[in-house]
Each structure stands twice: as structure tokens, then as C-alpha cells.
């Protein structure tokens, strides 16, 4: 009997605002643009890509493409998606002067 495997999607684990916030913070800490784009895509899938598309005014297909492992979203797209998530970029306050 052959075993069936389902594809893992981290979006399935992002079930609370706290989990999403921690996930995005960790992605941002890497400084890796492709990882960050992919993480934004996972959160968009968790929140519903159609809903995020509607809130941003961007096409779902554009979001799927931009927010993938190989995507390269513009700053405008990134900021629109973060705003749709209810997030915004802030400077880090614990940086020594």
C-alpha cells in the first residue's frame, strides 16, 4: 500500500495574529529578500489571497507571483500587503546610538 503525502504549507500553521507577527519578524530578521517575499506570501495565503487582493487592489495572480520564493515584489506591493495585514514598518528602537 502506497503512502500518501500532502504538501506542507506553513500558511496552515499561521492561525493567530501572534503567530503571524512572530513569523514575519523572524523573516525580516534574515534580511533575505526572497525569504521575506515567501513569508509574506504564506501570510497572504493564511489570511486568504482573495481577501488580500481585494484590500490591496492588486490581482491575485500578481500577488501569488510576487510573494513566492522566486518573487521580487516592489516596495509598493510590499507596503500594500503589509497594510492589508494590519502591519507597518517601524524602525528598531533598541539600536545603540
From TrEMBL:
Entry-linked Pfam families: dnstrm_HI1420 (PF21716)
InterPro entries xref list: HI1420, Lambda_DNA-bd_dom_sf
State what protein this is by name: Addiction module antidote protein
Q: Which organism is it from?
A: Sinorhizobium psoraleae
Amino acid at each position: 500500500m502506497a503512502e500518501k503525502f500532502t504538501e506542507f504549507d506553513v500558511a496552515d500553521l499561521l492561525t493567530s495574529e501572534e503567530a503571524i507577527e512572530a513569523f514575519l519578524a523572524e523573516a525580516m530578521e534574515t534580511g533575505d529578500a526572497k525569504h521575506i517575499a515567501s513569508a509574506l506570501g504564506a501570510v497572504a495565503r493564511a489570511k486568504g489571497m482573495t481577501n488580500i487582493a481585494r484590500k490591496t487592489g492588486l490581482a491575485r495572480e500578481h500577488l501569488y507571483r510576487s510573494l513566492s520564493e522566486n518573487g521580487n515584489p516592489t516596495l509598493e506591493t510590499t507596503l500594500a500587503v503589509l497594510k492589508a495585514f494590519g502591519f507597518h514598518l517601524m524602525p528598531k528602537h533598541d539600536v545603540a546610538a
